Amino acid sequence: MGISRFVLLVFTISMLASPALSDLVLSKVDRRIYLTSHIVRISSTLEVENAGPETVSKVLLAFPDLQAQNLAYLMASPHEAKAKFKGLTVGASFTFDVLAVFTHALRPMPEQIGQADIQLVLYQDSAYYLSPYVVKVQSLSLKLPDSRIESYTTLESTKVQGSEIKYGPYENLPAFSSSPITVHFQNNLPFTIAQELVREIEISHWGNVLVTEHYKLIHGGAQSKGEFSRLEPQARENVQDPSAIRYLVAHLPPRAHSVYYRDAIGNISTSHLRGDSKKAELLIEPRYPMFGGWRTAFTIGYGLPLQDCLYESEGRRFLNITFSSPVIELVIDTLIVKVVLPEGSSDISVAAPFFMKQWQETKISHLDIVGRPVVVLEKTNLVPEHNQYFQVYYKFNRLSMLREPLMLISGIFLFFVACIVYMHADTSISKFSASYLAKQQWEEVRVAIQHVHNIICQCLATHDKLEASLRDLSRTGEVQACKAARKSTDGLLKELSKELKPLMTFLQSSPSAVQVLSKVEELVAKERELLEKLMAKHSTAVEAYDKKSGARDIESRIALQQQKITALRQEVDDLLEFIDEI
User: Fold this and answer.
1) Nearest to 167 by CA among 175, 176, 158
2) Which site in 193, 308, 442, 491 is 20 to 30 Å from 562, CA atoms measured?
3) Cβ-count burial 182-219 (b if 16+ within 10 Å, e if not)
């Protein structure tokens, strides 16, 4: 509740009568109820007259229980800017304005609507101004968002002009007079409600104030029934999801920079920022139209120049910034504001235009030693009128600003010192240590195995030459050329066998080769068996050609041998692949 320039007390109908009540009379009451959004605003102009025998310094306001539960903001101010309230003397009068703002005061009727349906809401109030004083003359007007009115209570002196309903004037009504009225009307404006908003304002004395706002949003209007369809709006030319939240508008400070918007699941929505030196407007389009009961979560962030928010007074610094959300026509059920002060701040206090819970926490960030003090403020049931400036005062030693640069310089210096020490230090492993010797032995084994691998590959290449000579024999019938090819391969294979023998002897004697020795020995044995089968096949083919046997007879004689050769060659290839991976 806001109080401006004079004392203002709030009571409900159940308050006890006091002698001072009969001393005041409301000469004239002009009430205007604005129902043009989901936030109900009642602006009243009251002319109060002192009819008692002594000066009166307090004016009492009353609200029905239903309204008192939804009252979010209350402010009173003199009707004339220069007027001042210092108490009403006998026979004097004073005119002042009262603004009362209510949340959750409009009830959707029906409570569920389809995607293409319009939204109808119900509002209940009294045609008479509820007051503990006699009211001489009063009138009431209700401003609606649209001229479509489903129904309304008709009383004496009731008029409807377009989207406005007027009641009165009514004269000489006693204290606490009431005449219930109900209005059922169209209101397609989205009911944008933040069930929770967490604002973090982080101060850096290096020239920036970072603001981060985390929203949990819900459409508080009539619940959506049925399934959502993107094709349905395209089929209708004039009406497209009338009550859905299609976009949000946030009025940011004029020199806001580094503005960003992010959904809870990533930046997949659309946002536009436009503005100049006097204003900045962020337009947010959610990734889907939000219908009644639908929820979403997103984050807005931006930076502000330090000189626009931070000031000094009497040896203390203070942050001067708005308290609530920059999103227009937003109701906030719970708002938590966290002001993160620089590390080393002390003597912290808060000055705010309204009551709120407050406590302190500590935040550990990069390059912090003891952490940064955090002032936490919490308030419930907020409306745009709460977006007023508040101040956080604190003391800060300028020398503390050198803490982070010195830590960076020290860290870089120590890093380079460590590099220098590392470059000049002997970090090699001792050549007499067990680990070094084991590593050396394993390297020798790996080299030997690689040589074995290469020799076996050369043997297989020689086998291929022997196979090629048989193919030439079947094509040309030249037996002598085939015998010459075999003689040549025999010589090559003997040389390769001599090279292989010392390698196998080394591997068999090395303890480090125990794990792989069996595979290497198997590879050598399979290669020798393969060579024997090839030689047998070669001898059979040459002998058949010498005897002038037919082609079919030759093929039948070497067919079984070829099957064994193929199987052995596959086994040798598999063992080579295994050894190659060691």
Assistant:
1) 158
2) 491
3) ebebbbbbbbbbbeebbbbbbbeeeeebebbbbbbbbb
The per-residue pLDDT for range 251-309, each reduced to its tens digit, is 999 889 999 988 876 655 677 888 777 788 999 887 778 898 999 899 999 999 999 99
Residue 89 is given by DSSP the state P
Rounded CA-CA distance 221/333 in Å is 15
CA 285 – CA 273 distance, rounded (Å): 12
Contact partners, residue 467, CB within 8 Å, separation at least 6: 534
- Token pair in block for residue 186: 């169209």
61-75, 295-309, 339-353, 354-368: least confidently modelled range: 354-368
Residue 496: is its pLDDT beyond 80?
yes
Taking CA atoms, 206 is separated from 58, 289, 341, 395, in Å, by: 49, 41, 12, 16
Q: Closest by alpha carbon to 1, among 59, 75, 78? A: 75
For helices 551-580 and 514-546, the axis angle rounded to 10 degrees is 170
Per the model's pLDDT, the better-predicted residue between 384 and 239 turns out to be 384
Please answer whether residues 111 and 243 qualify as being in contact, where contact means their C-beta atoms are separated by less than 8 angstroms. Answer: no
Q: What is the pLDDT of residues 533-555, one digit of tens each?
A: 888 888 888 888 877 777 777 77
Tell me what pLDDT residue 47 has: 95
Q: How many CB atoms lie within 10 A of CB 418?
A: 10
pLDDT greater than 50 at residue 220 = yes
* Whether 560 contacts 550, CB under 8 Å: no
Q: Which residue, among 175, 76, 65, has the nearest Cα to 124 in the 3D structure?
A: 65
d(CA 193, CA 215) in angstroms, rounded, equals: 10
Task: Note the residue count of the chain.
Answer: 582
Average pLDDT over residues 328-339: 96
Q: Which strand (E) or helix (H) includes residue 579?
A: helix 551-580
CA-to-CA distance for 327 and 302, rounded, in angstroms?
Answer: 14
Residues 6+ apart with CB under 8 A from 578: 519
Please tell me the predicted confidence (pLDDT) of residue 229: 67
The Cα–Cα gap between 241 and 116 comes to 5
